[in-house]
Design a protein that fits this description.
By secondary structure, the protein is α/β, with parallel strands linked by helices. The protein is built from 24 helices and 19 strands. Helix content is 43%, strand content 12%.
Length: 741
């Protein structure tokens, strides 16, 4: 096959597309496609913010759609090259109805003195191999999912009760992008859209471009490129040989339909397929389970489903967006493009990299069937994680020149990807120090903070105890690499409490190591009751020059608790004797401990003075006030708790709990009703049976028995029972009766 020519010509005479349609613009993948299109294409650079993705029902006939025009609140803010800078705070949020949003940015012609600056910028871009910026106004029109927020920018609304009217909106666009790489339910709509546009191509006012962002799962069952070299990667030049995963046959049919629709009149209606690798970066989606489990730190190892030896083609979501952007700017001759990075990482390598950077640094292989039991993964995502495919993107490397985000893949760029994950999900660690006099309630407050924000509770005592346990375990384990004598010496040093000499340097190093551990670095910590002095704080929190700010353990908030001495002394005296012993409180020496604390911390000379010198935010609290009011001040200082789940997922979980509770209530009501019905039937049956018995007794037994009892009462015999029996026998002879069967 002939090598396609590189698309580097400058098209200054042709304005770029004015209107671009993108489906499900609020989902993980489409969101960043949209940001690059309206951001970088307007010269504003990447526009990134933090929010959670969502999903909603598939748009179809009788779907109500709302048209939205977003205006730049500062329309005159344009940079020197005449390019528009899009507001980075603008978000793409969802709506339960299909909405069409228009993101409108304005441009103006630059002044003469600005032309020179712009030409210089374009020359610099060309020297770096970048495509020259194409100026013009751009609008992004797209459908979104359930739960849209931020409606202040809505200027008008209109109804779209059918797909025919949605088609009218597509016909108004120069470029139509359908992203089905992670939205399986969008396949049918994409097939309808490209077919409907093809049927309407004769009425186009100008050329139109249709781009389908598909998935490499349509290659999952492809035969090797060379049977004699099974490790030789497939390329997009061999796209006609691809064979899909059984669950992605509809994707393959859609790809074939898109390619077919663009062959009839490519000058009027051109179509492209971009087969994307597994997408990673930013908040994560397919790989989010592994990032979440690593960050939470609740498991000793991170699972790898299957044997983990499968090679997974990947691409950073920003790089995929750049490929689509370049395709819009300069449509190439090949109509099928693979979008994957240059990595050939195995699945266990990917999970191990995540576990090393965020979690325990250990993985465990588990049966792939266990992945199907996870609520965090859909069946299609499990299929994608089990994919084994060696593939290489030839065309995008030959045709397009852009700045890659992660060209060498996830493993080589794990620290960058982890930092994106933390920033996008708002998971920057929270570090708090709680100080105060003895018996002021430092541990109580610390544990409440840890529970609300899922932080690690750290004290000097627990850190040293953990280190002692580790050393004792190492002494029992041969081959630890350290001689028993050295271990014994370390153990002896840790068990030494320092006496009157204060905190030992060895204890400080143990505490610093604990605060720099992976869990404390990821989630954060609450340091309870330490440092005790200015010197302790300086020794513990002084960073080496080569250490980066990311590894800093300096608390971001100091919670300084206090109360009058009389209040604290009364609190100690009110404690049960057993609790006093557990807390090592002696009422006789407690007053002396208080005086020592006050002396060390007067005039900001203690540990609080160290944090004041380091400009650490301090929250002074009087514990003699109501506990709820006290903790409310802490919550306001720290902000809302962080979560790895989207707010919508939390709402859905609450709704699911309410639904289950309602089902339980109804089931109990049904069971109660059934029991009532059974009791009623039993009562009716008993009534029927008892009426027959009563009739029998009244006719056959009661009359002679009454006569006999009357005779007993009249004669009062000494043996009434024997007398009654003789009477009944004689009465039978005098009054014969017909016996009932």
């Amino acid at each position: 096959m002939a090598t396609p020519r590189r698309c580097t010509e400058t098209r200054e005479e042709k304005m770029p597309p004015q209107r671009v349609f993108l489906n499900k613009v609020d989902t993980f993948s489409s969101k960043y496609l949209a940001k690059v299109i309206i951001g970088e294409m307007n010269g504003s650079g990447p526009v990134l913010d933090q929010f959670w993705t969502s999903s909603g029902p598939e748009p179809g006939p009788q779907t109500r759609t709302r048209g939205v025009t977003v205006l730049d609140p500062n329309p005159g803010v344009i940079n020197g090259s005449g390019r528009v800078r899009v507001d980075p705070e603008r978000r793409f949020n969802g709506s339960g109805r299909v909405r069409v949003r228009e993101f409108l940015s304005r441009v103006r012609e630059p002044d003469d003195d600005e032309d020179e600056d712009e030409e210089q910028e374009e020359e610099d871009d060309e020297e770096q191999g970048a495509e020259p910026n194409l100026r013009g106004s751009f609008r992004l029109v797209g459908t979104v999912s359930v739960g849209s927020e931020g409606k202040s920018f809505i200027l008008d609304e209109y109804q779209i009760p059918s797909r025919e009217q949605l088609l009218q909106k597509l016909l108004e666009c120069d470029v139509v992008i359908y992203n089905v790489s992670q939205e399986v339910e969008q396949v049918d709509e994409a097939a309808w859209a490209v077919t409907a546009l093809h049927r309407s191509s004769s009425s186009f006012s100008g050329p139109k471009l249709f781009i389908l962002v598909s998935t490499v799962m349509t290659w999952a069952c492809s035969d090797p490129a060379d049977p004699e070299e099974p490790d030789r990667p497939l390329t997009d030049e061999l796209f006609w040989r691809r064979r899909p995963h059984p669950n992605f046959r509809k994707h393959l049919d859609l790809e074939e339909t898109v390619l077919k629709m663009g062959k009839e009149d490519p000058a009027r209606f051109s179509t492209y397929v971009v087969a994307s690798g597994l997408q990673f970066g930013m908040g994560e989606q397919i790989l989010q389970y592994f990032f979440k489990e690593s960050w939470l730190g609740q498991e000793p190892d991170i699972p790898v489903f299957g044997d983990g030896s499968n090679i997974v083609p990947t691409i950073h979501i920003r790089d995929l967006a750049s490929v689509v952007q370049k395709l819009i700017q300069n449509p190439p001759k090949p109509s099928y493009l693979l979008a994957v990075d240059q990595s050939h990482n195995r699945m266990d390598e990917i999970v191990m990299a995540v576990a090393d950077a965020l979690g325990p640094g250990k993985i465990q292989k588990r049966p792939w069937e266990e992945a199907l039991l996870l609520q965090d993964m859909s069946v299609t995502e499990v299929d994608s994680l089990l994919l084994h495919l060696q593939i290489e993107a030839v065309f995008i490397n030959q045709l397009f020149s852009f700045s890659w985000r992660c060209r060498s893949g996830l493993v080589e760029n794990i620290h960058l990807v982890v930092e994106e994950f933390r920033r996008t999900c708002g998971l920057l660690p929270i570090r708090v120090c709680v100080l105060g006099p003895p018996a002021v309630g430092k541990t109580t407050v610390s544990l409440q903070i840890c529970e609300r924000y899922q932080l690690h509770h750290v004290t000097m005592e627990t850190a040293v105890a953990e280190a002692v346990d580790q050393l004792e375990a190492a002494m029992q384990t041969p081959g630890s690499g350290v001689s028993p004598a050295e271990l014994q010496e370390l153990l002896r040093g840790l068990k030494d409490d320092g006496g009157q000499s204060g905190v030992l340097e060895q204890h400080l190093q143990v505490l610093k190591t604990k605060l720099k551990s992976q869990p404390c670095r990821d989630q954060g910590f609450v340091l309870d009751g330490f440092p005790l002095t200015y010197e302790d704080g300086s020794e513990l929190f002084t960073e080496d020059e080569e250490e980066s700010s990311q590894s800093s353990i300096m608390p971001g908030l100091l919670v300084l608790l206090d109360a009058p001495d009389e209040f604290l002394l009364e609190r100690v005296l009110d404690l049960p004797e057993q609790q006093m012993e557990e807390l090592n409180y002696d009422p006789e020496s407690f007053q002396e401990e208080l005086e020592t604390f006050r002396t060390k911390n007067q005039d900001d000379g203690g540990a609080a003075g160290f944090f004041l010198e380091k400009d650490v935010k301090t929250l002074n609290l009087d514990v003699s006030q109501d506990n709820d009011q006290l903790m409310q001040q802490v919550w306001e200082a720290l902000g809302p708790p962080r979560t790895l789940r989207p707010p919508r997922e939390e709402e859905e979980e609450e709704e699911e709990e309410r639904r289950k509770a309602e089902e339980t209530r109804r089931r109990e009501e049904r069971e109660t009703w059934v029991l009532d019905q059974v009791r009623h039937q039993e009562d009716q049956l008993l009534q029927v049976q008892s009426s027959q018995t009563r009739k029998y007794l009244m006719e056959q037994v009661v009359p002679p028995l009454v006569r006999g009892l009357l005779e007993v009462c009249r004669t009062r015999p000494p043996d009434p029972v024997h007398f009654l029996a003789e009477f009944l026998l004689q009465d039978e002879l005098l009054h014969p009766r017909s016996h009932a069967p």
